[in-house]
Hints:
Mean pLDDT: 92
Shape: globular
Low-confidence stretches: 1-23
Distance between the termini: 33 Å
Number of strands: 14
Number of domains: 1
Bound molecules: calcium ion
Radius of gyration: 18 Å
Largest sheet: 9 strands, mixed
Strand content: 25-35%
Amino acid sequence: MAFSKKLLSTLIPAALLCATSANSNEDVISVPVATQAITIDGIANDSAWSASTWLPIDQHMIGEYPSKEDFSGRFKLLWDKDYLYLLAEITDDVLIDKIADPLDRYWDDDCLEIFLDEDASGGNHQFDFNAFAYHVALDNQVADIGPNNTDGSTNFILLNDHVNSVWKRDTNAPHKVYWELAIKIFDDSFTLPSNNPENIPVKLSADKTMGFMLAYCDNDASVEREHFLGSHKITPVNGDKNLGYIDASVFGKIKLVK
Ligand SMILES: [Ca+2]
Ligand SMILES: [Ca+2]
Ligand SMILES: [Ca+2]
Ligand SMILES: [Ca+2]
């Protein structure tokens, strides 16, 4: 007899129901603590990673659904008091960073997009820091949107000091990339400029719950990105599933565990 997750969740306390798939936003992903140091070098041989389970990046948001060779990906998470750690294994047949300016249409080059809502409040975050949508480019620069400029125009900003990342191609599978990241967590009191000394990263501890989603923008040869897939299922609004950069309520949740 097959049990649905919903039925299982009525039989097993939520804290014990460890998600094996990130595909339902109702599943809270348990993130294990890192018990050994992680070297951010794009090489996934750190023993700490063995404590974390792979989760898929397979939920469609934009474009045709790609073949496995065109794009496929999965990821792991770990944490310690200073960082959320992310390991992404990305298969992408063509890596492209055609727009040199890191603040110009960064979503139309290959990039990882990390959605983080420190207090899991949900809600609109497009022009404030209620949540972040870190676009991590192939040159490792990190872009998001801040409060509008005084003339009302959109204020694209770099938050490079929030995310330290290194990626490398797999030596045995050149179209496969391992991308390792250490992410500082900032709450909604974050203000520009980014180097404002009052911007202190949050110290992380067990049982903390945060809003989280991961996605990959895949472009190979087009003006605009060809595919946009994420870790969580998005319910379309007027046919549009590209909602994460606006509304943190579409993120899933992670819980830090010992
Ligand atoms: Ca490493
Ligand atoms: Ca591709
Ligand atoms: Ca928030
Ligand atoms: Ca690509």
